[in-house]
């Protein structure tokens, strides 16, 4: 039987499989036959068209005329550097010169350049001669401190006869100074120096009353008393006066103040020429 069947087939087919059109005990009629080697059909896949930039633009409604050129990238605009505001320059503060003080701590009075200088002492004349000798014997020493210290020590050891020439020079210098000072005062030098800086303050109503009180007391022939006692008596009487009795003094004080403001507007030279040596408020006292 093997000769009648080709290789790979047997006389008895396997269970569940039969020849086409054959039925029997091994193949129920309700069971459908399947091929020996079933081949599953492959699904046909539709290849999607590649999406291009033109199709993207068509979706938006733009007409595509070909491949779109890349738009040139705009360079960001350079921001101008913000100019920093320079801080406002501060005005230089004028330095007020400190007042010169004396050894005791009091403020030094301004000195009139026209006033005569004080007379030199005997020690000053001696120191002038000693300084010349000291420079010759000590050429390396510089400054005034060492020379002045050595001169003061030498001055203490001098005999009275050795000091006489220097004392005579000092006496002559003092006499000349006193004459110059007298001429300076008689010409009104101190008053002119004060007027150049500014007019004196005007008297108040009380000081106008005080000046009249002193005149009346001197005219009555009362016993002279100290300035302090006269001021006490005048102050007591001023407090006892009625307001109406103070009016004349207040009016004179107002006129003196007006004169003060007028003199203040003038220059130093005009003020000195207008006032001179007299008291600018004498007419109101």
Could you please describe the fold and organization of this structure?
Residues 116-185, 199-262 form the HMG box domain. Pfam families: HMG_box (PF00505). GO terms for molecular function: DNA binding. Residues 30-116 are annotated as: Disordered. This is HMG box domain-containing protein. Helix 2 crosses helix 4, helix 6 (205-219) packs across helix 7 and helix 6 (205-219) crosses helix 8 (247-265). Among the domains are: 122-187, DNA Binding (I), subunit A; 198-284, Orthogonal Bundle (DNA Binding (I), subunit A). The radius of gyration is 65 Å and the shape is flat. The chain has nine helices and no strands. The protein has helices at residues 53-59, 122-137, 145-157, 160-186, 189-197, 205-219, 227-240, 247-265, 268-275. Helices cover 45% and strands 0% of the residues. With 285 residues, the protein is mainly alpha-helical.
Mean pLDDT: 78
Query: What is the approximate shape?
Result: flat
Category from helices, strands and their pairing: mainly alpha
CATH T-level fold name of the domain at 198-284:
DNA Binding (I), subunit A
Q: What is the C-alpha radius of gyration, as a whole number of Å? A: 65 Å
Relative helix content: 40-55%
Second rung of CATH, namely the architecture of the domain at 198-284:
Orthogonal Bundle
Determine the CATH superfamily of the domain at 198-284.
Answer: High mobility group box domain
Please, how many helices? Answer: 9
- How many strands appear in the DSSP assignment? 0
Tell me the major beta sheet: none
Q: What is the ordering of alpha helices and beta strands?
A: HHHHHHHHH
Oligomeric state of the chains in view = single chain
Terminal Cα span:
178 Å
* Top CATH class of the domain at 198-284: Mainly Alpha
Low-pLDDT stretches are: 24-28, 54-62
Strand proportion: under 5%
């Amino acid at each position: 039987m093997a000769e009648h069947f080709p290789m790979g087939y047997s006389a008895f087919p396997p269970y569940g499989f039969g020849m086409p059109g054959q039925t029997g005990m091994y193949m129920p009629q309700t069971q459908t036959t399947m091929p020996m080697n079933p081949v599953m059909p492959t699904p046909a896949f539709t290849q999607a068209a590649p999406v291009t930039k033109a199709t993207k633009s068509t979706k938006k409604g733009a007409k595509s005329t070909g491949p779109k050129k890349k738009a040139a990238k705009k360079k960001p605009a350079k921001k101008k550097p913000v100019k920093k505001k320079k801080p406002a320059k501060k005005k230089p503060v004028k330095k007020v010169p400190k007042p010169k003080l004396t050894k005791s701590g009091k403020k030094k009075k301004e000195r009139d350049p026209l006033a005569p200088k004080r007379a030199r002492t005997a020690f000053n004349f001696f120191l002038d001669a000693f300084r010349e000798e000291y420079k010759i014997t000590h050429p390396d020493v510089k400054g005034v401190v060492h020379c002045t210290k050595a001169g003061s020590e030498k001055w203490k050891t001098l005999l009275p006869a050795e000091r006489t020439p220097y004392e005579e020079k000092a006496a002559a210098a003092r006499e000349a100074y006193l004459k110059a000072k007298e001429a300076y005062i008689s010409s009104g030098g101190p008053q002119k120096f004060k007027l150049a800086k500014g007019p004196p303050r005007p008297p108040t109503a009380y000081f106008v009353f005080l000046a009249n009180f002193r005149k009346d007391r001197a005219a009555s022939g009362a016993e002279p008393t100290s300035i302090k006692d006269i001021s006490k008596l005048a102050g007591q009487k001023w407090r006892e006066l009625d307001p109406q009795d103070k009016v004349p003094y207040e009016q004179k004080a107002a006129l003196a103040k007006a004169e003060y403001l007028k003199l203040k507007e003038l220059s130093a030279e005009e003020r000195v020429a207008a006032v001179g040596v007299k008291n600018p408020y004498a007419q109101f006292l």
